[in-house]
Amino acid sequence: MKKTVQIFSMLLIALTVMASCKKDTDPADKDFFVGTYKGTVSYRNGQTTINSSDGKVTVSKVGETYNFYFGNNIPDITGVKFEKTGDNSYVSVGSGLTGISIDASNLKVLVVKDGQTWTANCTR
User: Fold this and answer.
1) CB atoms within 10 A of CB 120
2) Which of 88, 86, 92 has its CA nearest to residue 104?
3) Sign, CA torsion 82/37/69/49
């Protein structure tokens, strides 16, 4: 009986290890592009123009949407949804917030909405 319990325990451990290793999680499911990107950023509306070659954009996720927090007194872009376009790269979708592409290394922004224009060409 003792040997049967021992064999059963080893079999259970082996199955647990195999099941754990079998999970092939896509890095995109882990929000691997959440973080800070640095590079060239700009913002323009009817009265204000801001350009910076040493700007930064911090990306965060809230639920199913992403927020882009710009430095350099540039207004933030919030509530952006994405669609996967290739191996771990995404492009923004939805009304008024298209023009953002992102992956683990690069962030490119060209958003025009309500008379405002945001651009970013950043890396990390």
Assistant:
1) 26
2) 88
3) negative
pLDDT tens per residue across span 73-104: 999 999 888 788 776 677 777 666 778 888 88
Residue 21 has pLDDT above 90, yes or no: no
Task: List pLDDT tens digits, range 39-64.
Answer: 999 999 989 999 999 999 999 988 88
Domains contained in the chain, CATH given: 33-123 (2.30.29)
- H helix runs in the chain, sequence order: 2-22
- Give 57's contacts (C-beta < 8 A, 6+ positions apart): 36, 37, 41, 68, 69, 70, 71, 107, 109, 120, 122
Tell if the pTM clears 0.85, that is, is over it.
no
SS3 104: coil
Residue 96: what pLDDT? 63
Residues 111 and 119: their CA atoms lie apart, in Å, by 7
SS3 percent helix, strand, coil of the chain, rounded to 5, is: 20, 50, 30
